[in-house]
Amino acid sequence: MEKLPEILICGSFNFGRLQLKLNFDLMALMALPTTVFALFMTFEIVDLMLLKILDTVLFAALNPEEITDLMPLTTEEILLLMLFHTDDTVLLTPFITEEVVLFTLFHAEETVLFTPLTTPDTTDLIAFHTLDTTDFTPLKMLEVVVLMAFQLY
User: Fold this and answer.
1) Which of 45, 92, 111, 153 could make a disulfide contact with 147, Cβ separation 3.0–4.6 Å?
2) 13 pLDDT exceeds 60?
3) DSSP string, 53-72
4) How far apart are CA 63 and CA 69, in angstroms?
5) Closest to 103 in 3D by CA, of 111, 113, 92
6) Phi, psi (rounded to 5 degrees) for 10
7) 47 in helix, strand or coil?
8) For residue 20, what pLDDT is reported?
9) 25-41, pLDDT tens digit by residue?
10) CA–CA separation, 64 vs 60, rounded Å?
11) Phi–psi pair at 3, nearest 5 degrees
């Protein structure tokens, strides 16, 4: 019988059981950095999208001839994509509608259950803000009168 390489005998890769444990440990270690990286990438993507939107608007404003020249070249592709997506929409609409109805019913029940729990908090906040507004209104009015007197407003 042929002797296997040392790496295969020691529990790595093909013949070892430690490989699954090693994979799980590595995946657990990478979960948090991956989440943080994805969060930062989201902000970067949003920033880049805003820049690209500005570039696109400027391109459209400054190059209307090029846009009208390119439109016939993309019309066929757009029509084919529209047909494909229309088919998808027709097939998926019943499933999405059912899901939305169930989701709405769930949230309606949740709203009915939680409204009595949040009403006292809301009432307290309204009372606090009313008192706060009542306290600061005369001061603000005095400030406006003084600024108007000196014509600084």
Assistant:
1) 153
2) no
3) HHHHHHHHHH-HHHHHHHHH
4) 10
5) 111
6) -80, 5
7) helix
8) 58
9) 777 788 888 888 888 88
10) 6
11) -80, 130
Residue 14 has pLDDT above 80, yes or no: no
What residues contact 108, with CB distance under 8 A and at least 6 apart? none
Task: Give the whole-angstrom CA distance, residue 57 versus residue 63.
Answer: 10
List the one residue out of 55, 35, 59, 58 whose CA is nearest residue 47. Answer: 55
| HSE-up of residue 36 (Cα within 13 Å, Cβ side) | 5
**Tokens (6 digits) for 83:** 């047909």
Instruction: Check residue 153 and give its pLDDT.
Output: 45
Provide the residue type at 98 as one letter: E
Q: By the 8 A CB rule, do 16 and 10 touch?
A: yes
Residue with tokens 């939107």: 53
Give φ, ψ of 15 to 5 degrees. -100, 0
Q: Are 18 and 11 in contact (CB under 8 A)?
A: yes
- Give the confidence band of 8 by pLDDT, cuts at 50, 70, 90: low
Helix (H) or strand (E) holding 147: helix 64-149
